[in-house]
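Case study 2.
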Amino acid sequence: MLDRHFIRTNAEAVRAGAAKKNIEAPVDELVALDAEWRGILLELESCRAEMNAVSKSIGQLMSQGKRDEAEAAKGQTKAFKERLDELEVRMREVEEGVRTAELNIPNPPHASVPAGTGEADNVVVREWGEKPTHTPPPHWEIATGLDLLDFPRGTKISGSGFVLYTGIGARLQRSLFNWMIDHQTGTNGYREVYPPYVVNADSLRGTGQLPKFEEDLYKTSDGFYLVPTAEVPVTNIYRDEILNGDDLTIKLAAVSGCFRREAGAAGKDTRGLQRVHQFDKVEMVKFAKPEDSYDELEAMVRDAESVLQALGLHYRVVLLCGPEMSFSNAKCYDLEIWSPAMNKYLEISSCSNFEAFQARRANIRFRRAPGEKPEFVHTLNGSGLALPRLYAVLLETFWNEDGTITLPEPLRPYVGRDRLTKE
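Prediction:
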């Protein structure tokens, strides 16, 4: 969420920022409602002042024996009270409208974000590793042949977009997220947390998923939601708190299940593990001082890259153009790994700086020194990494002609073997 005063005084810049993301934002509506709200506030203050003055005069008039004038003053006071009640009702209505408009105005992209119209305008920043030259079967055939995944039974249990991991395939899944959280905490210095998988609406509003993306969320009958990403509970750890500036930057990492309905994505990249409704992910979250946040973003991207480098997987880092960004972020890098079977890059991580956008929604502040005015922190998050596509590309990249999979060195102690074979 943007500062209301900032929107009012920089309406054109806010409109331009939304347009750069190809989002229609209710900027004009907010400005008009905000002007009405401030007008109501002035009338309320004037009305209260006049009512108080008339109320004070009643006693004086009565003591002077001016009963008729006192009764008239009482009538005026009643009229003022009725008008105040009307104004307060309207003020609440307008405030609700302003709040709704605020929540639907996106975070403007940082000046360094390229303009564009779509994916073709994203900028490749760098690549790492050699692109595989072999042509393996697609990961769903490899996984089925080695009894790692059971797609039909996953669908039977839950429905399309849900996967059953079996035997050594289940162990590989567990090994991947165990190794990645150990890597982010032990090598890259994040503090591990294990958050709830169910959150309330305030948490989702705080990170920007609500109200805009409710259709993509799994909602319970009592108003709670399954987490779409650990970004939501981890960022909200400090909601409505004031942090000590000396403690920043705070770096947290969490493993969680993620649940997404993927509304509107039917038929798009649905084979195998490319797009599923439930998956595991290691999430990195940072709380930083404003002057440090863009350096922390670059460091977070390197932390995500270090996972792929340790596994020996070819990838590229892409700076997203405006229309490819999310509603809430100010700058975003995607990490994309190469699928040798599908002959294309797949997004495996997004690392974003939200500046104060989420912190203002969630009221997360810090104080530079005792007694100083609190400021909003800058929040950042990124996948370190998401598992379905990592699992898929690992199978394809390290597939051997005999049908086995040679595991990367870091995973071997976790899986308990060097190769995957059919059991």
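The longest helix spans residues 27-63.
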